[in-house]
Amino acid sequence: MKNTIKIVAGLAVAFGFVSCDPEFENSVEDAGFYSNGTADLSRYVAVGNSLTAGFADGALYITGQENSYPNIMAQQFAFAGGGEFTQPLMDDNLGGLLLGGNQITENRFVLAVGPNGNPGPVRLEGNPTTEITTSATGPFNNMGVPGAKSFHLVAPGYGNVAGVPSGAANPYFARFATSDNATVLGDAVSLSPTFFSLWIGNNDILSYATSGGVGVYQQGNQNPLTYGPNDITDPGFFANVYNQEVAALAAGASGGVLVNIPDVTSIPYFTTVPAQSIPLDAATAGAVNAQFALFNTQVLPGLAQAGFITAEEAASRQINFSAGANFPIIMDDDLTDLTQVLQGPPFNLPPQTAGLLGMLRQANANDLIVLPAASVLGTTPDPNNPLGVVGVSIPLSDGFVLTGTEQNRVAAATASYNQTIQAAAVANNLAFVDARSALAQLRTGIPFDGGVLTSTFVTGGAFSLDGVHPTPRGYAYTANLIIDAINNKYDATIPMVNVGAYGTITAANNP
């Protein structure tokens, strides 16, 4: 059975997208027209994670950094008293990192036509040149560190090269940390910012979501040393750390801006692959249903009658295919694990079969299938078993699915974090940007001079080829949102940019 997911069909038009020189939404012929209001923009420092750094297309590279929202903002600040803005630029546009000459992160994505004739993201070939043991010469105004969670900003040694191989340190921060024991926040504060932006907290949720919920929602645990890499940060701990960071940055600044956390499940990484992604004809659907007949009619009812699962769970685990588009079968680690029960009497199933059925169910409309599943669903991974089709007779692994239960955990943490962020803005008299609402608007489209910006994968213009981070055009839109909030809060008249003048995705023949 051929791969049934054709998420990039018709995307060849994307090859027509090209970068172009930025233009201002407001005229800048007379620089004296613009005012910084009550904000001192002479030393702007941006603190955050990959979104602040300008990460895009699954990597950090020069062009992405040059189009980061803080750099776009700093260019506009220059018309209203803003000073120099420096960034720890990578050494090339490939995006990979080296440690001792060995590549430790992948190159960026570009759009290319694959062997099957469909356009889609592929990693750009080439040998990167950015060696993390060779420190970038600072200081740097852009303190965005890809991968950083809220508590990482105050963690000593987070930029120690020696800790990178074990995951104890961050390779991006290792490039420009002022010392082995430095913290991101400490280095940022040492610059004595007159104005700052802080956008942090996305990764405290995102890694849980992108891993398909392979992690723990930490509640009441304020010791990050005990957290797994994909765990959701305890909301109480997030609040403590976040308020500490805001206080430190605001202490000597004329002002700043705080940005809240979008609904991560609204990004293309979660919205591109349809939940009903398995097309079957009537004959094939009937044959598959026959394979699950005993499971549906005897095993599940028997388990419910014996009290191992509820009748409601038994009903939710029924497998039924029909002619047309179907939901794939999946593994759900929030279900009761029936593996051991199924190996015993009266079922006496072989270990492999029992393991297959132990947490099996069919996906439903509440589940989100993540973007990487597109290359897996409908495939036959074992050439010796042509009937072993992923999503039909082989379940899609839990890491490819964010279930409704897992989405509820993400939503609860997001809501709590956002309450903290908005309260901190009010308490410290800072500008506030509701990025969550802005992302929601992208689902239906944001008009600009020359088109409409949407969150549709590849063709929408807002998101890069990793389905998570913005394109230059998306970052320009973000910069405008923040500039607008600064203007309103500090009575400034900083000019905004024309988002349509910024590029979107890059084709393989246009590196």
UniProtKB/TrEMBL annotation:
PROSITE patterns: PROKAR_LIPOPROTEIN
Family annotation (SUPFAM superfamilies): SGNH hydrolase
UniProt-listed InterPro entries: SGNH_hydro_sf
Superkingdom: Bacteria
Protein's name in the database: G-D-S-L family lipolytic protein
Record organism: Jejudonia soesokkakensis
